[in-house]
Every structure is written in C-alpha cells, then in structure tokens.
C-alpha cells in the first residue's frame, strides 16, 4: 500500500455516542461519494476525500470487498489522513465526518 503525503491536518473531531448516532441517521440516505480502488490509499484518494469533506462535511466511502481487517485499516488511515472522524463502518461502507471550518452546514447536538 502506498503511503500518501500527509495532508494539512486539522483537529479530528471527538464525537460522543449521541453525536455519532445523529450523524449515522443523517448519512443513512447518502450515496458513497468516494470509492476506494484496488490501489488502496493513494495521495489522489486522500485529496479527493478532503475535497468531498469540504463540500459535504459528511460522506460515505466504499471499499472493495475482501479482508475485513484490511478494510478497517483503510478506513482508519483515510480518516486520519483527511483529518476526519470515522463515524460508522458497516460492511464495505464507512461514514466520515469533518465539520467545515468557519460555517459548518451540519449542526450536531452537544455531547
């Protein structure tokens, strides 16, 4: 697996269980906007994820089938490199959240 260049890191949001539940509900109807290919975690994938998080704040990411442990590692690494929180993972799909600096679109409840 290639290691992408570290992107501009921002503080990863710490989410309470109540906030995670709220974000899972919002993400339910979303379609995956990031598809991880066979190349795995690349610099281009991280850049596209950062752009999608800036545009949407809450996104779904879909990984190829296969080894569950490898998928979990990919999702965790992508969240770390994009400065986002891994809200939820089920099957081949993960939900990432990073509030927009300045004026966030998504208001989450206080913890």
The residue fraction in helices comes out at 25-40%
Strand order, biggest sheet? 1-2-4-3
- How far apart the termini lie comes to 36 Å
Low-confidence stretches: 1-9
Shape: globular
Helix tally equals 3
What is the gyration radius calculated from CA atoms?
A: 13 Å
Total strand count, please?
Answer: 4
Structural class: alpha+beta
Q: Which sheet architecture does the biggest sheet show?
A: 4 strands, mixed
Beta-strand content bin? 15-25%
Average residue-wise pLDDT:
88
SSE series: HEHEHEE
Please, could you describe this protein's structure?
By secondary structure, the chain is of the alpha+beta class. It has helices spanning 17-27, 43-56, 68-82, and strands at residues 32-35, 58-62, 85-90, 93-97. Strands 1-2-4-3 form a 4-stranded mixed sheet, with helices on both faces. β1 (32-35), α2 (43-56) and β2 form a beta-alpha-beta unit. The protein is globular. It starts with 16 loop residues before the first helix and ends in a 14-residue tail after the last strand. The model is unreliable at 1-9 (pLDDT under 50).
